[in-house]
Specification:
elongated, about 280 residues, single chain, mainly beta, 2 helices, five-stranded mixed β-sheet, 21 strands, about 45% strand
């Protein structure tokens, strides 16, 4: 009696392919549900084209080729720095940040407020990128940078734009000195233009003229009048009350070029003309 050999039943090829696709889809779906969210930019786009609309991207740069991303002073990232000699080599740098956290896992992603990394500069020359509160700065790195004493720590967003307030980068500086010299943390510079103007007996001092300012740089109008009046910047609709005998400061950041007059409303006096380039 002839017997057929035992065979294990197998589904047709089409069914096997469909089953394989189903398994792959389930695995991808599970990974998507449990995976970490990313803000990295799409292939073929630059860091500054990444998604995210935090702050305002200025045309001005930080001095190292990175554009400024301006945010309001309230709630803006903050940084302070202290340095001390290391017992074996170089310096230990400690960054204290506020309204900010280091996010090394999302570098290259979109700019999200309060997130990013820091960069160190020695007399303006780039040294290193920093992803935490502490950083050891070896003497070899200082020598490779050509030496110097002024150390700057500047905060950047994940898309490598520099966080800025009033068109000035958010940064801190310290001086590298001898082992016995305590570290210093001078305030961060705030580039811009300040105009001091006084009005007395209907006369403006200094005499009205034209002042050239840079687009994206802070303008501070410090005005004192001997009578109640109103300060007005044409073209930007910026106003401030001028109580008699008091000094008033009006601060704004010009975001377009042109010629703009600054005057008083009640006395109709021309104080100055701003030429924004």
């Amino acid at each position: 009696m002839n017997r057929r050999p035992n065979r294990t039943w197998a589904p047709p090829r089409a069914q096997r392919s469909a089953a394989a696709l189903l398994v792959a889809a389930l695995l991808l779906g599970a990974a998507a549900c449990g995976g970490r969210a990313t803000t990295h930019h799409k292939p073929g786009t630059s860091h500054e084209q990444a998604t995210g609309s935090t702050g305002r991207l200025l045309t001005a740069e930080d001095g190292s080729g990175h554009r400024l991303r301006q945010v309001d002073a309230e709630g803006a990232p903050e940084v302070a720095m202290a340095v001390r000699p290391d017992s074996e080599d170089g310096w230990n740098v400690h960054l204290t940040v506020g309204n900010f956290r280091f996010t090394p896992d999302s570098v290259g992603g979109a700019a999200l407020l309060g997130r990013g990394h820091a960069r160190l500069f020695l007399d303006g020359h780039p040294l290193a990128r920093v992803y935490g509160a502490w950083f050891h700065l070896p003497e070899s790195l200082l020598r490779a940078a050509g030496g110097g004493t002024r150390l700057t720590a500047r905060l950047y967003a994940d898309d490598h734009t520099a966080w800025a307030v009033d068109a000035a980068p958010v940064q801190a500086t310290a001086t590298l000195g001898g082992a016995a010299s305590p570290p210093t943390v001078p305030p961060a510079p705030r580039p811009g233009t300040t105009l001091d103007i006084s009005v007395r007996d209907g006369k403006v001092s200094p005499a009205p003229g034209r002042t050239e300012v840079k687009k994206g740089r802070t303008v501070r109008l410090v005005v004192r009048s001997d009578r109640d009046d109103t300060l007005h910047v044409h073209g930007y609709d910026k106003e401030a009350r001028l109580p008699a005998g008091r000094t008033v400061t009006l601060t704004f950041t010009p975001d377009r070029t042109g010629l703009f007059e600054v005057e008083t409303h009640e006395s109709d006096l021309l104080l100055t003309q701003l030429v924004v380039r």
